Structures are given as C-alpha cells and as structure tokens.
What does this fold into?
Amino acid sequence: MKKINVVGTSGSGKSTFSRMLATRLGYPYLEMDAMFWKSNWQESSDEEFFAKLDSTLSQERWVLDGNYNRTVDIKWAGVDHVIWIDYPFSRTIYQAIKRAFIRSITKTELWDKTGNVETFRKSFFSRDSVILWTLKTYNRNRVRYIEMFNDPKYRHIKFVRLKSPKMAKKFINELDL
It folds into this structure.
C-alpha cells in the first residue's frame, strides 16, 4: 500500500481518516481541496488543478484526500488503494452540519494562505452551502462509487469500503507496517 485515495461525500470524515492513515503509515497527507481552492474562494482552472495534482502525485507514497470525479484518470492511474468512507446518511449530514457550524464560529482558515473561511451565512443560507452539497451528492456518490468499484477498468486497484467509524479505526489499527 503506497498510493491511497480516500473518497467519500463531504462531511463523511474522509479528511480525519486520511490524516490518521497518513500518520500511521508515515506518508504525506495530500488534500485535493487545498490544491483546488485559491484565495477568496476562487477556483483553479482544470488545467491548473490537473497539473498541480499530477505533479504532487509523482511522489512515491501518499494518502490523497478527495473526490473530484473529473480527476479520476489522473489520480487513479497510479493508485493502488481506494478507501471509501461510506458512513450512513444520518451520520454524514450530522458531521457536515456540526463541522460547518464550528468552522463558521471559529473562522478557521481552511487552507494555508487562502484566507478562505466558512461563514454561517454561506454554510447555512447559500446555494453554495457545503450542507446542501452533502444533501445533493450523498446518494449520487454512493451509486457512482459502487459502479466504479465494479468497473473492470479499475481492476488494478484494491477497493476498501468502510461503513462505520469502528470499521475505519479497525482498518488503521490492523495495518501491517
């Protein structure tokens, strides 16, 4: 296990899991959102994003946190494991709401040197809300990942589906190092 992509709906816990996994393995933790978002919530163009992702993934070992379906051809070309954090909808939406609330109160910068912080208004009363995004993408992501896990074109990848925090903790604790 050298190149790992952790996927899951926003709010599922993929970042927390990814950081724990990277720490346990001693691998770099790579966050796709940090590669994509620029200052003042400006999005990278696909050209910029793909180049940055391709360059970053040239490392020998990593744990990559993030979905961005349009990047699958880049990130899964050399990946050996994809771990899907597939917790129940009720837990995922609860985590998304809790995280948005805490971030909007603390005004914590999400990615270094971007100045990007979540606001209460953006998180709860905007069509750009991460909570709304979670509601809209939860089922769609589940269907997509089930299809991808069964697609013969990805047979070179070991897929792991973790359905609970208990399974996630067990997975990390039982790793052979």
Observations:
- Strands lie at 3-7, 29-31, 62-65, 81-85, 158-162.
- The longest strand covers residues 3-7.
- Residues 3-165 form a domain with the Rossmann fold fold (CATH 3.40.50.300).
- The chain has a mean pLDDT of 95.
